[in-house]
Amino acid sequence: MRFVIVTGLSGAGKSSALKMLEDSGYFCVDNLPIQLIIKLAWLTLKERSDIDKIALGVDIRSGQELAELEDIFKTLKSNNYNYEILFLDASTDVLVKRFKETRRIHPLSGKGRVDRGIEIEREKLEFLKRKADYIIDTSQLLVRELKVEIDKIFVKNEKYNNFFITIVSFGFKYGIPMDSDLVFDVRFLPNPYYEPELKPLSGNDKPVYNYVMANPAAEEFLEKACDMFRFLIPNYILEGKNQLVISIGCTGGKHRSVTLANAIVKKLSTLEYGIKVEHRDIEKDTLLKKH
């Protein structure tokens, strides 16, 4: 039997996660009154042999009843009901944007500012985040990427690490990504833009990749940067950080930064963390020329 409590911040993807679990064969219940959790556990674990996977959605809508969860967890453990907690998180800026796009009202904002409601909710749910077995920060995740993470944990039963790394390539002329934790400038490398046969290509193409990485300085940068990341990441984790955004920039975000971002992902892929690459500006020059 697998009993999963799905919780997290409003707008962070809890409903999507429950739907994904339901599609994977989990018996899902959302927003059940807190007092009925033990009853549900007893009924399904003791009385329903046909149900072997349960996902229960719990969030801020439970109001003051949330305070009773501590006692609920103790009761579950004392009765040998094993449970896991999945916590969906996201940055305040991303959540504000999502609420504005969907025109939804945050449950704690009322007529006030959405960001204030989010911060209040974050404080109220902090005890659940501390207890969570899995924390997924959806700030940089597409729906399909969230599904990959959900499947990895709850379908394939693979080992999961709560720390997630996003490597972003970008062009300085379009601005530094606002959510960057670390920013690196690779404009010190020769620019393939000035090579006629390489100009229309990108760092995703082998000729450009080979051109950039043939420079000894590129290889040295890659080695030194990845050594630093290997040092920093465990220390970030000790401080409670669960996401790291590393931004690699060149002039237009098409050649050098794309190449190095791809090389870094390849180099760090052996670490036991979630990692993905995003090329923010790779198509912008082409789009601008069309207009």
UniProtKB/TrEMBL annotation:
Residues 1-157 form the RapZ-like N-terminal domain. Pfam families: PapZ_C, RapZ-like_N. Residues 165-283 form the RapZ C-terminal domain. SUPFAM superfamilies: P-loop containing nucleoside triphosphate hydrolases (SSF52540). GO terms for molecular function: ATP binding; GTP binding. ATP binds at residues 8-15. InterPro entries: P-loop_NTPase (IPR027417), RapZ-like (IPR005337), RapZ-like_N (IPR053930), RapZ_C (IPR053931). The keyword ATP-binding applies. Keywords: ATP-binding, GTP-binding, Nucleotide-binding. Transmembrane segments: none annotated. GTP binds at residues 59-62. HAMAP family: RapZ_like. NCBIfam families: PRK05416.1 (NF003828). This is UPF0042 nucleotide-binding protein. It comes from Mobilisporobacter senegalensis.
